[in-house]
Structures are given as structure tokens and as C-alpha cells.
Amino acid sequence: MDLLTGPDDRVRLAVGRTKNGRRRGFTLDERWLEPARTLATRFGLHFLSNVQFRMHGDRPVLMDVNTRPAGGLHQLSLCGVNAPWAAVRLALGEDPGEIVPPFLGQDYAVVSGPRPLCPVPLPQPEPQPQPQPQPQPHADGLGTGPVTGPAPAVSAPQCPAEPSPLVAPGAGPVGAAPRTDPAARA
Predict the structure, then answer these.
(1) What is the spatial distance between Cα 86 and Cα 103, in angstroms, rounded to a whole number?
(2) CB 11 within 8 A of CB 50
(3) Residue 31 class from Cβ within 10 Å (0-12 exposed, 13-18 middle, 19+ buried)?
(4) Calpha distance 24→21 (Å, rounded)
(5) 58, 105, 136, 162 - which has most CB atoms within 10 Å?
(6) DSSP structure class, residue 59
(7) How many helices (H) and strands (E) does the chain have?
(8) Which residues of 112-124 are buried (b: 16+ CB within 10 A; e: fewer)?
(9) Is 73 helix (H, G, I), strand (E, B) or coil?
């Protein structure tokens, strides 16, 4: 449950986000909303907070209370709600009133996969001017030559100019229907 509560202990926003394996969704089910609102008002969870429940049979059981915004708060944008902006307005003294999502976003699936990482260049110290080597006689006495210095530094491989795509070719963004190529159907 993502919550926005004012310093007057009045809840302005309460929206549930559901998880079932990789499947994610949203809810306004009072089985979750009512206890989350009660916790927020009784314990003074002001501004953005997050209350988590887990199902035990057919009943939600309290799992966690976070007095900070949840990491997935941005997902409420799929319901037409900008909770961070509402919290800023509330903090500045402009009451956004009760915020009810105009719709519940479509369920979506979370898919993770490997991503290539590029080496991060470390700052290098400024090169100091090196004294020029003085000619030295060779051990055999047949001539002179420069003294060799340290080997030159080898640079790390460069990252590709374009990062790899976040989705597989032909796939759309998270939550979108898969794209199909009419020519590929043949």
C-alpha cells in the first residue's frame, strides 16, 4: 500500500500494489486499504509511506511498515497518479485533497535478465614531466643509448557508443502487447 498522509493525520492517497510471482497489479480493495489507513493515522506516518501485507489464507497479515516512499512508487503513474508531486504540494502547504486513481493500471509482468556492464574509468593523476634520460655507455663500451623507462599504460576497452536495448527485438515496453511483424507470420 502506497500512502500519502498529511501532518493532520488525514490520508490523502491509498493505493495497493499487488505481487503474485512475476505478475504485478493494483488494488483498491478495502481489506488492505482500511488497515493501512489506520496504521498511517494512528502512528503518524506523515507524507509518503508504504505498508506491506502478505496473504494468510484469505486474510491480509501485516508484514512491514516503511516510513518512507516505496522503491516502486513510480508504478502508480500507470494508474494516472503522480504521488511524489502530490507529496511536494502537501509539504509546501497546498493540500491536494483526497486523491483517487482515475483508473487502475493494467497488470504487468516483471522480467529480469543479464545486462552488460561497461568499465568505469577511474580518475588518473596528472602525468608528471619525466627527466630526459642521459646517454649511458654500453657495458661493452661500443656506444651509448637511452635508458628505457616504465612501460606505457594500457587503456581499458571502451564501451559501445549505444547501450544494448532493454527489451528483446520485437518486444514492446513493459506492459505493452507484443509487436508482430506481418512478414514474419508467413
Answers:
(1) 17
(2) no
(3) middle
(4) 8
(5) 105
(6) E
(7) 2, 8
(8) eeeeeeeeeeeee
(9) helix
- Extended strands (E) in 1-123: 2-5, 11-20, 23-27, 47-56, 59-66, 108-109
How would residue 89 be classed by pLDDT, with cut points 50, 70 and 90? very high
Give the tens place of pLDDT for each residue, 98-120: 999 998 888 888 887 777 777 77
> Do residues 115 and 160 lie in contact, with contact meaning Cβ atoms separated by under 8 Å?
no
Q: Is the pTM of this model over 0.85?
A: no
- pLDDT tens-digit series, residues 141-184: 555 555 455 555 555 555 555 544 444 444 444 444 444 444 44
Q: Residue type for 42, please?
A: R
DSSP 8-state assignment for residue 150 = P
